[in-house]
Design goal:
Strand content: 5-15%
Number of strands: 3
Structural class: mainly alpha
Shape: elongated
Oligomer: single chain
Order of helices and strands: HHEHEEHHHHHHHHH
Strand order of the largest sheet: 1-3-2
CATH class of the largest domain: Mainly Alpha
């Protein structure tokens, strides 16, 4: 039957984007600040402790989770202490803050101690509810860390280059939209200090090519 206490609201993307933008206005002195100082926001604005947890990922297949008293974010220590995973850590923190902002009432209603209880809870909850819970946090984190207007302004000067590159790929019979988006994302992701994969998703979700009228289909 699943966990009856756990049923996240079914929010539309537009609603999540609005929530992320309101969060930005509330917690950033300069709403255009990029990269978003997510660790500072977590610790100094929200007063949530970031707690490295040894073997969290290997023992539970969970990289991070928000405590149900909303005072701590537990993060796998191998990610937290390894600079190679900084972009991943930043997005992970933003993801957990998505839960904090959108799902705090649901999380408070749960009673668990540590990642063992959280992992067990996940196993006993409807897959559909978990998918909504996680998808919403991913969308919040994506919009927060990669603001739409900033993304538009970064890609606008690349319009001609993107169209010419797409034409070149078509002539070589190698045109693939995912490949093209990956290339664009890699070119600009350092501005956000976030992974190219996250930026690629934002370009697609926010329909940036349509906004900028980037034409990829003329011969």
């Amino acid at each position: 039957m699943g966990n009856q206490l756990f049923r996240p609201k079914r929010l539309r993307y537009e609603e999540i984007w609005e929530i992320a933008e309101e969060f930005r206005k509330e917690h950033l002195a300069d709403i255009a600040e990029i990269p978003v100082p997510i660790e500072e926001i977590v610790e100094f604005k929200l007063h949530i402790e970031i707690v490295p947890q040894i073997s969290l990922k290997t023992s539970s297949d969970i990289e991070a989770f928000l405590s149900n008293d909303l005072k701590s974010i537990y993060v796998d220590s191998s990610i937290y202490f390894d600079d190679r995973y900084l972009q991943r850590l930043r997005f992970t923190l933003a993801h957990e803050i998505g839960h904090y902002v959108m799902h705090k009432d649901v999380i408070r209603a749960l009673h668990f101690n540590g990642y063992e209880d959280w992992s067990e809870f996940i196993k006993n909850t409807k897959e559909e509810d978990i998918e909504w819970f996680e998808r919403q946090a991913f969308e919040f984190a994506g919009r927060l860390m990669v603001p739409k207007e900033y993304l538009v302004n970064l890609i606008r000067p690349l319009k001609t280059e993107i169209e010419e590159y797409a034409e070149k790929l078509k002539k070589e019979a190698e045109f693939d939209m995912d490949y093209l988006l990956t290339g664009v994302a890699r070119k600009i992701c350092s501005h956000f200090n976030i992974s190219a994969d996250v930026v690629k998703i934002r370009i697609r979700k926010e329909k940036i090519f349509d906004i900028l009228d980037i034409n990829l289909y003329t011969s």
